């Protein structure tokens, strides 16, 4: 089962990941949310990340957890 997040408007989004090679030659994982689970759906939230929601659009955003108590 894919990791899902229901926003304040009641819409459910599923977390996905794609691996890409950037210009420097490094492989980078790109995380994004979609309304339907599909190829690349992730079962768990990655370590060190949390889900926040855009106040304006209601879209979920994956954000790194802060190391500091005030962040």
Q: Which structural traits does this protein have?
A:
3-stranded antiparallel β-sheet; 71 residues; two-stranded antiparallel ribbon; 0% helix; single chain
Would you identify the regions where 5 or more consecutive residues have pLDDT less than 50?
A: none
Question: Strand arrangement, largest sheet?
Answer: 1-2-3
Number of strands: 5
Cα-atom radius of gyration = 14 Å
Number of helices: 0
- Quote the distance from N terminus to C terminus: 31 Å
Helix fraction by DSSP (H/I, runs of at least 4): under 10%
The biggest beta sheet is recorded as: 3 strands, antiparallel
Proportion of residues in extended strands = 35-45%
Q: What count of domains describes the coordinates?
A: 1
Order of helices and strands: EEEEE
Q: What general outline do the C-alpha atoms trace? A: globular
Mean pLDDT: 94
Label the structural class: mainly beta
